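Reopening: structure tokens for the magnesium ion complex, inputs below.
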Amino acid sequence: MDFRDSDTLVGPSGADLLPATAATAVKVVIVGGFGVGKTTLVGSVSEIRPLTTEETMTLAGAGVDDLAGVERKTETTVAMDFGRISISDELVLYVFGTPGQERFWFLWNGLFEGALGAVVLVDTRRLEVSFEVIGRLEDRGVPFVVAVNGFPESPDHPVEELRAALDLPPEVPIVACDARRRDSCRDVLMALMRHLYDLAASRP
Ligand SMILES: Nc1nc2c(ncn2[C@@H]2O[C@H](COP(=O)(O)OP(=O)(O)O)[C@@H](O)[C@H]2O)c(=O)[nH]1
Ligand SMILES: [Mg+2]
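Re-run output (same inputs, fresh job):
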């Protein structure tokens, strides 16, 4: 199986990349700050009706959820999003979106169990919300790619500036995406799969 040359996965099985038990079902997690587009991304890629736990934000969130830059946002994910996408006959991704707000860190323990990798979704208007998320993934040793969700007002930074700003090592892929577009979100997940493949291949 080679993820690097083609957009679709070819080869008899995913066994050379994944443990035998994961050859057909792989768990990935979408993380990121508040309002960066996680729920949108999971909804865009999912071929099943995504399970979301959106709740209309109430006064309870006032002063707690930072709405700067996302003033139009009226719903927030209280626990997680869940969706599924078939990449090939052999590979199905189960996609979990989870909040990066501090008061939800307790969810991370269970959610990351068995996860092969993560996508960190970022909004360039509010990069600082990604710092702690990235730190937590690094602490856990979870491989990840960074996907920059393009909002109309978001400043366009060259990739290497973003890498420096987020203090990311050169091997961590940074890709652009539009969380509303299915093909774009699929490309992000493919970038993660390629990255996992490269990491597995570079291990002695
Ligand atoms: N322009 C634009 N808006 C987006 C994009 N992705 C999400 N949004 C909007 O941004 C808001 C927050 O998205 P949401 O998926 O709820 O963020 P979450 O908190 O990370 O789950 C929603 O109103 C979305 O419709 C995008 O790629 N471009
Ligand atoms: Mg959400």
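Residues 113 and 152 are 35 Å apart (CA to CA). The pocket of guanosine-5'-diphosphate (ligand 1) is lined by residues 32, 34-40, 70, 72-73, 77, 149-152, 178-180 (CB under 6 Å). Marking as resolved unless the reporter disagrees.
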